[in-house]
């Protein structure tokens, strides 16, 4: 954490927000467009992004005319939204997606880029599902994009999985797992040519696809789609991530409302 960082911004303070929108990777136009295409297609009225960040997805979605709201913990991240085309139209509430309520009823709530894992307890992740359901109209959809836990790459006796090693850039990245708590940390080591370094460690909780289905059920939602990616490829045993969609049970006039 650097001196300009506000601890209230959590793991995404000013020093992280400042280069979050750098070109490439998750910010590559084709990556953003493929997610925005699917979300626009699934929406049918106002949408809400949990952990909207700098508006990487919310702003281009709003630029297409979709009414977009967002909840975000970090003021430093949220401050970047309005600078993007479409960003002015995004209604942002600073708060915690496990509990913060915004006014309105939504056709779609979405939580992308592995961010369900930023909530590091199972109870907290269930609260995210309950809060999503509370914002949805009957028949509304909740979309989560998250990686499949990478445990198959970890031999017995080892707790670390490297995911990047770039000698030229002076960068090494690795995850460190605790299979008892399902917590893991993502670790980023950067060394500048003068030998000075930075070590960033971000805590997560990994969560299995079937566990997410159970959380959805607890919150009164049922599975609708599970794709391997935003191109809606088939989800298979080899998929490294998924885009999952659950539907809030529609209300029938003679039926009791769903549990949860
Ligand atoms: C990896 S970024 C994703 C941002 C954006 N959704 C995107 O796709 O670029 C994770 C974001 O989640 C936010 N965040 C983490 N935990 C949160 C919580 N409990 N409630 C709201 N936002 C949260 C962080 O501040 C950060 O902006």
Brief write-up:
The protein has 260 residues and is α/β, with parallel strands linked by helices.
Protein architecture, described:
This protein is α/β, with parallel strands linked by helices and 260 residues long. It folds into two domains: 7-149 and 208-248, Rossmann fold; 151-204, N-terminal domain of TfIIb, CATH 2.20.25. 21% of the residues lie in helices and 30% in strands. The chain has helices spanning 14-20, 29-42, 58-63, 75-78, 122-135, 209-218; strands spanning 47-50, 68-72, 91-94, 106-111, 136-147, 160-166, 171-178, 183-191, 197-205, 221-227, 241-248. A seven-stranded mixed beta sheet has the order 3-2-1-4-5-11-10. Helix 5 (122-135) crosses helix 6 (209-218). The radius of gyration is 19 Å and the shape is globular. The termini are far apart. The structure holds S-adenosylmethionine (SAM). Residues 10, 12, 51-53, 56-57, 71-74, 77, 96-98, 112-113, 115, 118-119 line the site of S-adenosylmethionine (SAM). Keywords: Methyltransferase, Transferase. This is Methyltransferase. It comes from Amycolatopsis azurea DSM 43854. It holds the Pfam family Methyltransf_25.
List the helices and strands and how they pair.
Blueprint: H1 14-20, H2 29-42, E1 47-50, H3 58-63, E2 68-72, H4 75-78, E3 91-94, E4 106-111, H5 122-135, E5 136-147, E6 160-166, E7 171-178, E8 183-191, E9 197-205, H6 209-218, E10 221-227, E11 241-248
Parallel strand pairs: 1-2, 1-4, 2-3, 4-5
Antiparallel strand pairs: 5-11, 6-7, 7-8, 8-9, 10-11
The chain binds S-adenosylmethionine.
S-adenosylmethionine binds next to strand 2.
